[in-house]
TrEMBL record, chain B:
SMART domains: ZnF_CDGSH. It comes from Streptomyces pilosus. It comes from the Bacteria. This is Iron-binding zinc finger CDGSH type domain-containing protein. Gene3D superfamilies: CDGSH iron-sulfur domain, mitoNEET-type (3.40.5.90). One of its GO terms (molecular function) is metal ion binding.
Amino acid sequence: MEDLRDEPLLPAPRGPVSSAVQAHLRGTGPLPSEQDVDAAPVYGDDLQLALYLCYELHYRGFAGVAPGLEWDPELLRTRAALERRFLGALRADARRHDTVDDALAGILVEPVDGTGVSHFLRDKGELWHLREYAALRSLYHLKEADPHAWVLPRLRGRAKAAMAAVEFDEYGGGRADRVHARLFADLMTDLGLDTTYGRYLDAARAELLVVVNLMSLFGLHRSLRGALVGHFATVEITSSPGSRRLAEAMRRTGAGPAAEHFYDEHVEADAVHEQVVRHEVIGGLLEDEPYLAQDIAFGVDATVFTEDLLGDALLADWRAGRSGLREPLDQVAQDSTHTS
Amino acid sequence: MPNSPSDAPRRVTVQRKGPLLLEGPVEVELEDGSVVSSDRFRVALCTCRRSRRYPWCDTSHRDRA
């Protein structure tokens, strides 16, 4: 009988911790030791991939991995150990503002001479940079809005209604061809990339895993609902101007109509979402639970911090003329012939 | 003559700094008589006139530093 399952393939391990988690998923070995978890660099490939493997069981799972492992107590214990290190590092390293207004003030100002990834791509980006960028971001955009949907049952009233409305927009307002994840897949097709979910996980550097793991961490824990809302607000606030620069990059390089449309759509949509999230979601949540103010500010700070980690690493490689991926895309494209 | 009591008033949110927020969908008639529409659940109308996607807000009102 034809196997209709299409879960992503397990990625290659990147060290003792991710290797042990993977072995556990395959049912062939023990979970990582406490010493290995404690010794792994917190923002590094090994720890972040291990965490990514744990989290992905809550989204689409992996081929050959029993779906029930999502709630395996032993695996959850390991996940909790990884999360303690990740969250502890973020609380120490991400610059902390005590109030939501202070945290948001920094990202509500547009730098005149911005030096971020979207500025680089607008001014100097070549098609190969855009392809690498899209391959990396596909780890989030092919499940766009999913990590944030988990916060809905933890909100009430005004905050819940507004959050659901924004998510409805992210999910295409009831139209499958307008789901943002679908618009991103169309962009990938324009760029000659493989739209298979999880296809570029092996190519994704640690800093990208950090960015996506942050969303899953905040989304999966009710205790971090304030941080999730702060994170979401940061994404929406920074998206509109960044998307305009990326749309310009797509136009200048002739990437294609769907590639332009994805970012054009986000310029307008996120200018609205920003307003709704700031006034209704954050405003409503603070009315209901004013003691979450510091958590919301932390969510903003942690998002800015992790995006900077990714941007700095990517730009260092690109400015040196190197690929920003763990495996160059051409090799990835060749590999795709025997994995699909 | 009064409106029907069943007509809920349309809520428009104004901000000193930022777009006008309306419940969608809306049609906007521009100065030249052309009409553009948006079917979003909430629509942000540019008031600073700096938007490159006028009449829709594109966050161009933000301070630059």
